From TrEMBL:
Residues 26-42 have a biased composition (Low complexity). Residues 61-70 have a biased composition (Basic and acidic residues). InterPro entries: Cyclophilin-like_dom_sf, Cyclophilin-type_PPIase_dom, Cyclophilin_A-like. This is Peptidyl-prolyl cis-trans isomerase. Keywords: Isomerase, Rotamase, Signal. SUPFAM superfamilies: Cyclophilin-like. It catalyses: [protein]-peptidylproline (omega=180) = [protein]-peptidylproline (omega=0). It holds the Pfam family Pro_isomerase. PPIases accelerate the folding of proteins. It catalyzes the cis-trans isomerization of proline imidic peptide bonds in oligopeptides. It comes from Paractinoplanes tereljensis. CDD domains: cyclophilin. The gene is ppiB. Belongs to the cyclophilin-type PPIase family. It comes from the Bacteria. Gene3D superfamilies: Cyclophilin-like (2.40.100.10).
Length: 244
């Protein structure tokens, strides 16, 4: 499944502050937000101090009325070609809000896509971790905005798995409500439980780039000369991610 494992890291926070013009520093400290407080809007972006950001970035803006209409175009410019994306606010407003924030913050610039899968029922390229390990994120998490109208996967007679169709753009996660920065791009119909937020689609020119990456396969190892899951053999770098 396109999911990442978030490490349990020991975090030592060094905070320097100057109380200028405050007659009661203790009162000021008490009124300051906790480093674990979520944002006040409906998206409730929540800091994860035990899982610090792979690259420094602030919490996204969280307006009372999160934009929930319209589509936004973002282009991932990679070393192997452009991957234009169309984000859909109506499908996942909080996810789009976060993705655009990370794009504006240059969080995705100069990062690699660390995982390619080539299973018959799971065909995705996973990106969005500046550490390149598959365990990194933005230092915050937020709730799922799960799809409810996906068709059942024909390969699953139980009906539990649904079709994440070719061209889908979705969030990777490490369990319920753990969305961060990692996302996956579907290059062939995949069968997944509907536990992954879909927030847009890949334009045809982007699919051509994605097909080229997929055709290169997964990087072989001495233990497995033909792996189905691992780093793409064609190293894929996101040079820039920009709204267009």
């Amino acid at each position: 499944m396109p999911k990442y494992r978030l490490p349990a890291l020991l975090v030592i926070a060094l905070v320097a502050g100057l109380g200028l013009g405050l007659s009661d520093p203790a009162a000021a400290s008490a009124s300051a937000p906790s480093p674990t407080d979520p944002t006040a809007g409906p998206c409730a972006y929540t800091p994860t101090p035990d899982e610090p950001a792979a690259r420094p970035v602030r919490l996204p803006p969280d307006p009372r009325h999160t934009p929930e209409h319209g589509k936004v175009r973002v282009v991932l410019r990679t070393n192997l070609g452009a991957i234009p994306l169309e984000l859909d606010r109506s499908e996942a407003p909080c996810t789009v809000q976060s993705f655009l924030h990370l794009t504006r913050s240059r969080f995705y610039d100069r990062t690699i896509c660390h995982r390619l899968t080539a299973y018959p029922t799971l065909s995705v390229l996973q990106c969005g971790d500046p550490s390149g390990t598959g365990e990194g994120g933005p230092g915050y998490r937020y709730r799922d905005e799960l799809p409810t109208n996906l068709p059942p996967a024909p390969t699953d007679p139980t009906g539990a798995r649904k079709v994440y169709a070719r061209g889908v753009l979705a969030m990777a996660n490490a369990g319920p409500d753990t969305n961060g920065s990692q996302f996956f791009l579907v290059y062939a119909n995949s069968a997944l439980r509907p536990n992954y937020t879909i927030f847009g689609e890949i334009a045809p020119t982007g699919l051509r780039t994605l097909d080229r990456i997929a055709a290169g396969g997964v990087t072989p190892t001495p233990e497995d000369p033909a792996p189905l899951d691992g780093p793409p053999a064609l190293t894929t770098k996101i040079l820039t991610a920009r709204r267009h």
